[in-house]
Amino acid sequence: MVLHELIQHLESIAPPQYQEAYDNSGLITGDPDQAITGVLTCLDAIESVVDEAIDLGFNVIVAHHPILFKGIKKLTGTNYVERTLLKAVRNHIAIYAIHTNLDHMYLQGVNSRIAQKLGLEDTRILAPKSPADPMVGAGMIGRLPIALDEITFLDQVKSAMNTPCIRHTNLLQKPVRTVAICGGSGGFLLDQAIFQQADFLITADFKYHEFFDANDQIVIADIGHFESEQFTIELLQEIITEKFSNFAVRCTKQITNPVNYYI
User: Fold this and answer.
1) Which of 95, 84, 93 is CA-nearest to residue 46?
2) What residue ranges define each of the domains in the chain, with the CATH number in brackets?
3) Which of 37, 75, 212, 246 is 20 to 30 A from residue 6's alpha carbon, by CA?
């Protein structure tokens, strides 16, 4: 079993052409023809994850976030990106990233896993890339099986998404039934969530002044970037193991979230 066969499968699930222009999904280090000894899935392919792969004897890492987003002019190990790349290359470890193209998939995508965790039904893409292809695009919107009061729903989100805190706008004192979601930085979907009459937008990375844009029309609930996407790690493992059984696939045990909370 060689790496390009795994890549072919991943790209059949989330075609690279659906990634955003700024993105860098795809093979970042490694030889497409190298034989696979094992695959480690993660959110962030940082140095500690490479160390974990080395310890396991695995030579492929499939990550959600690309470790390399922009060009670099030298590799001297002066920052975490350079150190990660150097260690991966020296140890013949391939790093493959599947980022916004996976975000944009309705089936087996990042947001479909969030919707599953929150128990949403009747889901659809919130902002399709084109009217001709409503199954590909940003975010997702769906309905709760039964309406919940806002505090009960926030408690449910906190538990289901395993997050220690939620930053949110004013509660609107009305039942929650329709929920918009976006793994990672989803502030750009706020207007669309309001237009589609969502009661909540569950996402991450809202800045202070952006919370005012809710304008008492929706509740913004910022659960944290890592927290919103953490279940992508298990999603990637499932996508790979459902197709291949001739090598080990494991989820990283490293917590790569750089944000800590003092509660």
Assistant:
1) 84
2) 3-102+230-251 (3.40.1390.30), 104-223 (3.40.1390.30)
3) 75
